[in-house]
Amino acid sequence: MDGPDTTGPLHRYDELVTDVRVHRSMYTDPAIFTAEMNRVFGGTWTYLAHESEIPQPNDFVRKNLGLRPIIVTRAKDGSIHGLINRCTHRGATVCRTDSGNARSFMCPYHNWTFTNTGKLTGVPMHKGYGASFDRDELGLGRLRIDSYRGFVFGTLDQEIDDLATHLGDVTSYIDQWLDRWPGAELVVRHGQTRLNCKGNWKLVYDNSADGYHPGFSHASLLRMRKDRYGVGVDMQWALGDTDAGLQTVTDLHNGNTFLDQRAEIDSYWDSAAPMPGQDSFEQAIRAQLDEVSAKAALDVVVGSGMNLNIFPNLLIIGNQIQVIEPLAVDDTDIVWYSTSLHAPDLPPEVNSLRVRLQEDFPAFGEPDDLANFEECQRGLGVEEMEWVVTNRHIDTGTETLDANGNVTGPVTDELPIRAFWRRWKKLMTSETKLVAR
């Protein structure tokens, strides 16, 4: 059977992407990958950094917007900027350090110099360009920047709604995630775990709210922990009939989705996987707080029971932030950032335990996922088998509307994948003009 026509600038996406199946070329076609680096990563609010990564005036970090190298800076006045890391002279990157503190960036090639807000201020022997030379026209490219509760996003679409409007109901879930200890400040400055897989970036997002796979993909890890530590430790729910459970997935619109485990968690601390130094840290926390407060403090050590997936590249998983960084059609970096909570009434031992726990899943669980992503990419190379199936629970009558009118289904429902592809297709068929100002 002949496959769908993939010629032309928009590749006839209505044929290639439906609610029940997706064509294999969406994961394997280099031309589609190139287009989505512009239309998806440039055409919507894409996560760049957390404000706590640049706490002081003139701090900066290097990040990416799709394949575009970006510098996220905090200027002297505290304002945050997203600059395209590309000299306007000959195209070299002007910043080649991952993070630091700098009032300006000097291109090593010809020493053109730019402020940390993007303005061109220094051009050696500028008279050689003549009287028509205008520095104001040659500043670094600038993204449109907005943030919500410390999460910094950027876009090249100058007409898109502001970030809070774009996020919609996502903001309430960010609030719930951040406010588990009232008044605490989230800090993302504790290093990262960078993993690579030879698979398409969308395979990672497909998996981000997939409650169907854990009991199978991670079975050896979960059974080992069950045998060693007993029933109830670390995602034991995944080993049963998850269709009959209380966990759900929800479509939050604009490609954003949510996996909610909280209905099946009685005690976060008691369900955590054991970690080094646990007993002494626990004793120190209990010595500083009353019984109720100590229980609450120990609970915020552990994952929140929430997987919040913010299109196209930010995944909030447990107590960690995961960022998807596409490199090529079949090459993706997945970066896990550890987080801590800081409040005057929160013992520091809480964060010692959080770091210990945050070493856990990226080392013991994520390799299972990476192996699956790479084997999916390999299988998707089979031209004679064209389709990926995405219709789980679409016809079972189990989907309902939550209190906000959002479609919700059992945790094994593939509605998050369908939600992702609807947003992806809308952006890929958009004629929005992208501008770096």
TrEMBL record:
Ranges for domain Rieske: 46-154
Q: Which PANTHER family match?
A: 3-PHENYLPROPIONATE_CINNAMIC ACID DIOXYGENASE SUBUNIT ALPHA, CHOLINE MONOOXYGENASE, CHLOROPLASTIC
Q: Which CDD domains match?
A: RHO_alpha_C_AntDO-like
Give GO MF terms, alphabetically.
Answer: 2 iron, 2 sulfur cluster binding; dioxygenase activity; iron ion binding; monooxygenase activity; oxidoreductase activity, acting on paired donors, with incorporation or reduction of molecular oxygen
The protein's matches in Gene3D superfamilies, at most eight in alphabetical order, are given as: Naphthalene 1,2-dioxygenase Alpha Subunit, Chain A, domain 1, Rieske [2Fe-2S] iron-sulphur domain
Report whether Metal-binding shows up as a keyword of the record.
yes
Per the UniProt entry, what species is this protein from, by scientific name?
Gordonia jinhuaensis
* Name of protein: (2Fe-2S)-binding protein
> What InterPro entries is this protein classified in?
ARHD_Rieske_2Fe_2S, Rieske_2Fe-2S, Rieske_2Fe-2S_sf, Ring_hydroxy_dOase_asu_C_dom, Rng_hydr_dOase-A
Q: Which family does it belong to?
A: Belongs to the bacterial ring-hydroxylating dioxygenase alpha subunit family.
